[in-house]
Amino acid sequence: MNKLRITLFSVLACVFSCLDTLMAQERYQVGVCDWMVLKRQKLGEFQLAKDLACDGIEMDMGGLGKRELFDNKMRDPNTAAFFKHTADSLGIRIGAIAMSGFYGQDLTQRDNYLALMEDCFETMKRMGDVKVAFLPLGGCSNDWTTNKTKRKEIVNRLHDIGEAAKTHGVVVGIDTPLDATGNLKLLKEIKSDGIAIFYKWQTILENNWEIVKDMKKLGAKNICAIHASNTDSLCLRNDPAVNLPLIKQTLDEMGWSGWLFVERSRDVKMVRNVKMNYGNNVMYLKETFNSYPAPAVLLDSAGRDSKYVETIIGRARKATDELGITWTPLGQNVQNIIANRYFKLNDIYAERDSVKKTDKKLAEAQCDSKLYRSHFGFDADLSMYLKPQDIERVKDVMTFNVLKVTYEAHCDMIPTLKEEEKAQIIAWLIEARELAIDAESSKKKHEVFGKYKGRINNYLTKRGYDLVKEREAWYERIKARRGKI
Q1: CB contact at 8 A, 35 and 60
Q2: How many CB atoms are closer than 10 A to CB 381?
């Protein structure tokens, strides 16, 4: 009876956990801004969003500059339909339509502002009845908050925009430099339910205000969406200014639901690495908001020392970093496959060492057999997620790029190498790499390559090359170009 109760409680716990996750997914959606991931109105934005495990994207209307209207491809119904079909086929939603052009354009200087809004509203309809538009007021500078004349003009225009939005059944979320008190006062002046606040953590943090207190004061009904990022400096998980668990708890308590879009929070040391920065931020947001997809490949870490597991994950991550996929669901699966291979090798060699105590010959035979039988499974597992050329890159990282370094060194040392000689060298190095991957330590891996380097040298000598002279001449060339191969 006790076993039955334990089993029942376990099942119920699992069910409730799944329900919590589903509720979180319904309540909160995470996306990225297409103009910030360098995919402004590009078809590839949907596949990128899928790769990053986003629920959707915030699509921009296109540049504005000196144009009369936005540089908006979605004005063409056929193009919009094709984009929408692509998004649907990948399960990616368009959570908001942005008018980022107004980061640099003064709303009060645009006489055709309502035409620009209508263009946006029509695009929202074409892209699947999107309900939220983003309108930054950055181009107005910040003097409008105190300049009564300019403030009145902005308020009047936002009222008109809000009323127009209501006729389309949508909301325009404005980005202001104000705190909750200032935003509440502004919304009261605008007097239109078609205007709300597109909340931006970066603004709050730059003014040394508290996000949690400010959101509570502003209230859930006044926040139509959130730009869930800080300025560029650190990714969200490493940013001490962003207490994400507390923010999530606060939004839960407020009863808020909606879209969280990553706009910035890029690591300044790798600011152009889109997948690393946005994948990292999306993962952290979805982990915190309980909606990040579990990897299909489970990590074989049960019963292993936690520090050892951490070391192995770090080793596996070098390969996914090389591919630029670490902070993606794809990267998590590949990382686990590589880590599991290291675990498997450790287990095989640990068993060999144990058997060696009684029968050294049997131990080596069993070890070789298990290495051989498991070797090809690693390639097969990787092939479920990676292209052949990417599998090659993984193997190179796991063997310290010795193949590439050695091959390039030989080609540089002997510029007169024939194509068939180059082919033979690369063939032997690939063979060496396959053996080195399964070696038990970095020392053993290098020893494998060392044997094959000897074979290559013997081969080249037989082909008539004087390696001593070739090497001396090579060193002189290296000195002449200041040590660069």
Answers
A1: yes
A2: 19
pLDDT, tens digit (0-9, with 9 covering 90-100), for 239-286: 999 999 999 999 999 999 999 999 999 999 999 999 999 999 999 999
Q: Which residues pair with 134 in a beta bridge?
A: 98, 173
Measured CA to CA, the distance from residue 381 to residue 135 in angstroms comes to 46
In angstroms, the first-to-last Cα distance of the chain is 73
**Whose structure tokens read 């597992």?**
381
Q: Which residues contact 323 (CB under 8 A, 6 or more apart)?
A: 331, 334, 386, 390, 393, 394
Per DSSP, the three-state class of 98 is: strand
Amino acid at 411: C
Q: Tell me the Cα Rg of the chain.
A: 29
Paired strand residues for 360? none
**Which H or E element spans position 225?**
strand 223-227
Angle at 273 between CA 268 and CA 279, to 5 degrees: 100
Residue 295: partners with Cβ closer than 8 Å, 6 or more residues away: 329, 332, 333, 336
- DSSP at 142: S
Residue at 369: amino acid letter: S
Between CA 176 and CA 141 the distance in angstroms is 10
Q: List, for residues 45-98, the tens digit of each pLDDT value.
A: 999 999 999 999 999 999 999 999 999 999 999 999 999 999 999 999 999 999
Q: Which helix (H) or strand (E) holds 318?
A: helix 306-323
Identify whether the C-beta of residue 37 lies closer than 8 Å to the C-beta of residue 278.
yes
Residue 107 pairs with which residues in a beta bridge?
none
Which token pair is 184?
């509440």
SS3 313: helix
pLDDT tens digits along 423-455: 999 999 999 999 999 999 999 999 999 999 999
Distance CA 434, CA 14 (A): 42
CA 461 to chain centroid, in Å, comes to 49
